[in-house]
Amino acid sequence: HRVLLTGGNGFIGSHILAQLLDYGCTVCCTVRTEEKGDKILKDFAGQQSQISIKIVPDIVASGAYHTAVQATPTFDTVYHTASPFTYTNVESNLEFLEPAIKGTLNLLKAVKDNAPSVQRVIWTGSCASVIDYNNLVSDPARIYTEADWNPVTWDEAVHGDPSKAYRASKLFAEREAWKFMEEEQPSFDLVTLTPPATFGPLRHSIASIGELNESNSRLWKLCLNSTKDAPVPYMPVHTYVDVRDLAIAQLKAMTVPEAGNQRFIVCAKQFDFQDVCDILRSHFAELEERTPLGKPGTRSLPAGAYGIDNSKVKQFLGLEPRSLEDTVLDVARYMLDLGRKE
Ligand code: NDP
Prior knowledge:
Blueprint (H helix, E strand, L loop, with lengths): L1 E5 L4 H13 L2 E6 L2 H10 L7 E5 L21 E4 L13 H21 L5 E5 L18 E2 L9 H6 L2 H23 L4 E5 L3 E3 L14 H11 L14 E4 H13 L6 E3 L4 E2 L2 H11 L23 E2 L2 H7 L6 H18 L1
Parallel strand pairs: 1-2, 1-4, 2-3, 4-5, 5-7, 6-12, 7-10, 8-9
Antiparallel strand pairs: 9-11
This protein binds NADPH dihydro-nicotinamide-adenine-dinucleotide phosphate.
């Protein structure tokens, strides 16, 4: 396969890149600057011959991807992961919404107009476009499937708090992507993957804990570097997937023909921060003062907290999620090592 990958320098994008390279693909990564491209080449030093870099400075600009999608030999698959997911230095909700939506549409349009050889576009969404964040607990607990959509409105997206804007950016971008497919009837098909909170060791290099991506950084703050006595009792985000399992599913999204024009929630299961803290405290003596004790062995999530049905992704893409313990221990070892080097 010859693949174009956007956001290959990010947390999830670099794991997808690793899967694609190991599978034998050649991959062209689009990034915003030359430095970011050089860093990818450095991080994947042993596989540089399979990688090329193209600079797309502004994914919001009209025609942003028109040149990037053209190549000799031509691409057959496109992965889109580039989308804002950081709350640092954000001044307006549009900083989430515009790159997510326009970036997606610019890419789809470029592929349709300038890359007729592409057979499939694989788009990284989020459970943020699935879950109704105003109804997190119910009796009985709601179990979400691929048929569900976050009912957030554009008005809430623009005027709500930044987390609403992030979630809405994923919702509206995915809505627009499917609408594009319906209206434009391009010759390629679309696969959307909507993972929940994604945790795991990084594949790309960073210099400090401060550079951790958003989801791992939350885990660090809440469970490995906390001053609280008890784990967060409840979060709207209490389902997860390991980034390595997500990346395997992303690869399958390219190789499994039946995945075409399907939406997949790539989720392991519900998790409880008390469980995460129990695992951490029983393995790392150094976390005694930094990981909340809470009430070991109990549940901090309320009864009726929503869950996710992952049967579709298991059936089509063969997802076999590793255990919560494996994920927590691997990412904790990674973060503790990084913290020690600072
Ligand atoms: P990262 O922040 O590590 O990666 C984000 C990627 O998107 C980077 O390559 C970044 O490039 C690029 N990007 C961000 N904003 C822009 C912009 N305005 N213009 C161009 N490129 C941009 O985050 P993740 O790897 O976690 O996120 C990747 C995707 O996965 C996103 O679409 C996110 O919504 C989705 N996701 C993540 C989850 C998680 O828990 N981590 C869960 C569910 C979905 P640059 O380095 O130039 O900023």
